[in-house]
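Comment thread on ticket #2218

A.B. wrote:
> Attaching the input chain for the structure job we discussed in standup.
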Amino acid sequence: MNDKVQSLIDGTLSQEDREVLNELLRRDASARAEYARQMKIHALLTWRAGAVSATMPKVRPTVWRSTWQWAGWAAAALLFIGFTFFLISPNPAAAAVSQIIAAWEQAKDRSYTIRVLAGDPWQALKDGRSVSYEGATLHLRGLSEFVLVRVLNHGGQVITGSDGQTNWDIRGKGPVRVSHETNRFRGGIPGEYQNLPFMDLRSLFLSLAVDYDLTIRDDSADPTLRCLSAHKRNRDKRGLPSMEFQFRQDTGMVVKMELHGLPEEKGGPRAVSLELTSETVFPGDFFTHQAHHEPDREVINESADIKP
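C.D. wrote:
> Ran it. Output below, let me know if you need it in another format.
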């Protein structure tokens, strides 16, 4: 039992084993207690490593720093435990969330096309140009690699991406800007500024399970698809007001998502959809910046540890 619980926390169980474990947790109170204990330990360690910092407020260092840190770890533990019991609850939405997360974490290369549902397709850049989200493409590999391609208003493209180690940004014919900071150049991904961890659906759904009402329904147009809707309970809490995820019934793969209530900062859309348009496998180096510019393009390292 303990080995299965630990494997689930580490994400190493197959979907079949996960379903067996979920059923065991529903029936066996001692299994639930053991699982909650391990989840609490995992949450504390994760918080201490900084992996869940996006879900919790940062505390300024004071003489009570250690007390506040333990309060933060405890709060993070409660989030993880609450999410755990949501996943093992009989709520149909819980089963859908578990299926979607498993499919997302196992997915390889895929591409989503962005469509603007409301608001301005164009967003102003600091250099006076504007970039469009209508028809933009987001390519993904695993949970850390991406390439986002958007069109500039005076010709050319903004291509932003990460190979999992180096984040980079190319604007038109300008230099390539690179950084080893995890969140650098990710602001262009829809919802990124609203603490929407698009690349990490497990963290996203952790937040949704706590702060949103989740409902599940069959897709009226396609019997092979289902829809998961999320509506925020408290308007005062940070986050998008509503989201919707359309996914394949058999695998849980997300084929379309809608994000409503984007901030329209410096223009930009108020709502967008991202629709799966390709699952073609890309070349091995596709998510490196070198694959998207000529060899002699200037490269500027903007990592925080690089002195100007």
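A.B. wrote:
> Thanks. Noting for the ticket: Residues 43-72 have pLDDT under 50 and may be disordered.
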